[in-house]
Amino acid sequence: MEHMGVEPGRLSFSWISSAESTKFVDVVKDVTATVKALGPNNNFKKAADKVA
Amino acid sequence: MLGYIDKIREISKRLLDEGRVEMVIGFRKGTMPMMNEPTFVKNSGEVSKLVWDSNCGINLANYLTDRKEKIGVIAKGCDSRNIVTHILENKIKRDKLVIIGVPCKGMIDRRRITAVFDAEVREVSEEGDTVTVKGAGFEKKLKKSDILQDNCSACIHRNPVLYDELAVPLVEEQKDIERYADIRRIEAMSPQEKWQYFEDLIAPCIRCYACRNACPLCYCPTCFVDESRPQWVGKSQDETDIRTFHFLRAYHCAGRCTDCGACERACPVGIKVRQFTSKLNKDCLDMFGWEAGVLPDQRPPLDTFKPGDPGDFIK
Predict the structure, then answer these.
(1) ipTM field
(2) Is the dihedral of CA B280, B271, B184, A2 positive or negative?
């Protein structure tokens, strides 16, 4: 995805067990902070009238 | 590459006469220059229509999918790698095949030739490394190495990896070539530049799916783009839909693509479709040391788990 021009950080992968609630919270905070820093996504947008 | 054909015909005739195969899949002359087309030869009287020259770029493994009869198939390096992939993916049984290996010195890119001339190209012939192009009122000799398909000039598997019969002796493989120059150039770009690069690359796409149809890997009974319940991807000409089609198709080929160039060859508008798949091929090589279709006895990397598999992207 990054090769195609999606900014690094917008897509993330994580392995969290259902028992790792603290890790889940940390990851969510981390991901939202990174994405907020990148700003709104202008790629992969489709005008409403074109949505088929 | 000329002169191979006598041997190919001889082998095909023998296989058909002995009843070892019910048909031989090869190439016949197309109706237009530089456009040889696949043909199924079912009796030995027809072997004379088989041809072999530098316009046999179509991947014949594409015609083997789910076939039940005994088949003789003519295979270049890339075709043979796709046959290996087909066997690994249970799309054809090895014992149904007689593979006629043809070591390859690269196929010519017809677009490179037509780009040189303003007028229509009517006849293309070759002798050794020289290709002679004729049209109304002109005749020109070109060096074959200048007009090769991109994937052929970066090929390191010219010899078939799997074969029962060999039409001609094996050729020397190319060494010390930069196989991923294009990909490295894109990797060096910024995210915006990358986005723009692919935006421009697929701008002419008309979504005819010729790339998919020419690809031996694309054998799904219903392709994700044709599916309507659920509809995975929009069917419009919107650039988002076009991009989704291209990169998803590339992902489906990850660890399977042999870089045969069939997609690029088939594209009617000349999009360099390999720019998508080459990156995945390069990553597979860097991360898993894997090249598709080279090892008949190993499972592909996306099929297996090894403790050493890179997992840095999982946080």
Answers:
(1) 0.80
(2) negative
